[in-house]
From TrEMBL:
It comes from Alligator mississippiensis (American alligator). PANTHER family: CENTROMERE PROTEIN N (PTHR46790). Belongs to the CENP-N/CHL4 family. The keyword Zinc does not apply. This is Centromere protein N. Pfam families: CENP-N.
Length: 347
């Protein structure tokens, strides 16, 4: 076994929490079950890693097996990476083909390797029909960097791919070309969806997240200056009723269950305004564009907590509550008669 392969396996094992090492090695499926059962995980992790490397040497592990181990690690601890959603579209008149995993792998590899020789590509299919693709990029003069690989998670028969980029983004166009060629699509574009939680992104784009659309308008909260003593019982009842209303409206808007863990969202703002009072025609008006970004460790839960905390009126603006639905498309906001209204950009 090559010394670089041994070092890569050793470093991968060192990243795994001690309690997860047996299960991860079993999921890898490369080492014999009998040898895994005899593996002692009580010593220091450095000793465990060396023991695993010794087993791999006895079984002549190659970079292919080491890459699959890395795939299993990232599948187990997928929240350690930042994932971005990409949406593919069929060409005009295109029909959905029956998915062939072997043909997919062949087309994907051929497209990338036709432009770049020094690259390693590995695949692993998991139980949820997710195909995990690992690409370690090199250059015309250097070998592939196994420590800065790009990951793609693709569900067959769907137009969505989830990509966790490496530091070098110069190969992203080539990766996107390989995806649309292998999956028989015509185009691909990045969506405004990023998160560490891959499962939450899947819940949103696969519409596994249930949320009620807002059908009523906000009612402004009335300001009240109440003395701390001799409070009127009717005001206490009114405050209690208002809190119950906020809780009810919040439940109608966000639903009962936990929110998908979304960490980033952004709106593209485009408005037309008159730079001079004499301008009447729309063609004479100037365009103003900006990008509004939201970020939070748990964006949707943060929005959900605004009204109960008294930081916003209930219900929230549809521009915020519609994020899980609108995120499947691009955001565009137009100004019409002084009112900002959300609209989707056509594909």
């Amino acid at each position: 076994m090559d010394v670089t392969v041994a070092e890569f396996i050793r470093r991968t094992v060192l990243k795994v929490p001690r309690s997860h090492i047996p299960a991860l090695l079993q999921a890898w499926g490369f080492l014999p079950a009998a040898r895994l059962q005899a593996l002692d995980v009580r010593p220091l992790k450095e000793a465990i890693a060396e023991a695993v490397v010794q087993l791999c040497q006895e079984n002549s592990a190659s970079i292919k097996e080491a890459a699959v181990l890395d795939i299993v690690y990232n599948h187990t601890f997928q929240n350690k990476r930042v994932w971005t959603v990409y949406q593919m579209t069929k060409a005009t008149g295109g029909e959905t083909d029956i998915f062939d995993f072997t043909a997919f792998k062949r087309k994907f590899k051929r497209r990338i390797q036709s432009s770049l020789i020094n690259v390693t590509i590995n695949f692993k299919e998991f139980e949820d029909n997710a195909i995990w693709i690992r690409i370690a990029w090199g250059t015309s003069y250097t070998k592939p960097n196994q420590y800065k690989a790009t990951y793609v998670v693709y569900h067959s028969q769907t137009p969505y791919a989830f990509i966790s980029k490496s530091i070098n983004r110069s190969n992203l166009p080539l990766l996107c070309q390989a995806l649309i060629v292998a999956s028989n699509y015509g185009d691909i574009r990045e969506m405004e969806l990023r998160s560490h939680c891959l499962d939450s992104l899947k819940d949103i784009v696969f519409k596994r997240y249930s949320q009620t659309f807002q059908t009523h308008h906000p009612k402004p909260l009335q300001e009240r200056n109440v003395a701390p003593e001799n409070v009127d019982p009717r005001l206490i009842q009114e405050d209690k009723s208002e809190k119950e209303r906020i809780q009810r409206v919040n439940q109608e808007v966000f639903g009962d269950g936990p929110q998908p863990k979304l960490e980033f969202a952004q709106y593209k703002l485009e408005t037309m305004f008159k730079s001079s009072p004499k301008m009447v025609n729309v063609s004479e008006r100037e365009s103003f564009r900006c990008l509004v970004k939201f970020s939070s460790p748990h964006l949707l839960e943060a929005l959900k907590s605004l009204a109960p905390a008294g930081m916003a009126d209930a219900p929230l603006s549809p521009l915020l509550t519609c994020i899980p639905h609108k995120a499947r498309n691009y955001f565009k906001i137009k100004e019409r008669k002084g009112v900002l209204a959300a609209g989707l950009v056509s594909p």
